[in-house]
Amino acid sequence: MITPEQLYRSFSYIGKDVEENITVLKPMKDAVSEYELQLVEKALNLCKNKEEAAGKLGISLSSLTRRMRKIKQSKKDVKIDFS
C-alpha cells in the first residue's frame, strides 16, 4: 500500500503546491495544460536557447514555439485590476 507520505515524496519535484495540486481537483485537460506551460517556462529559463529547451523537453522546435504562443496568450488573458 502506498502512503500519502510516499506519494508526496514521489511528486515533490512538481513544486511547492504539490499538496494543493493533489487535493484540489480540476479537469484533467486544464491541469495538464497548466503543468505543460510551467514546464515550458522552466525549460526556457534554464536553457541557453529555444533549441536546447525543445531538446530537453523532447519536443520539436515548432511545438515549443506553439506552446510559447499559448503562454503569451494566456498571460494576455489575465487582467489585473489595481484600483
From TrEMBL:
Protein name as it appears in the record: DNA binding HTH domain-containing protein
InterPro entries in the cross-refs: Homeodomain-like_sf, HTH_Fis
SUPFAM superfamilies on file: Homeodomain-like
Gene Ontology MF terms: sequence-specific DNA binding
Coiled-coil ranges (or none): none
Residues in the signal sequence: none
Species in which this protein is naturally found: Ureibacillus endophyticus
Residue intervals of the DNA binding HTH domain: 34-70
